[in-house]
Amino acid sequence: MIHPFISGNKWRKLKFNLIKAEQEEKTNLVTFGGAWSNHLLATACAAASYGFKSTAFVRGEDVNNEVLFLCRMFGMELRFCDRESYRDKRRLFEGHFANDLQAFFIDEGGAGAEAAKGCAELIEELDRPFDHLFCAAGTGTTAAGIINGAALGQAEAEVHVVPVLKGAGFLRDEIDKLLLKEQDYHPEYHLHLDYHFGGYAKTTPGLLDFIRGFSASTGILLDPVYTGKMMYAVFDLIEKDRFPSGTSVLAVHTGGLFGLLGMKEKFKLA
Question: pTM for this structure?
Answer without folding.
Answer: 0.94
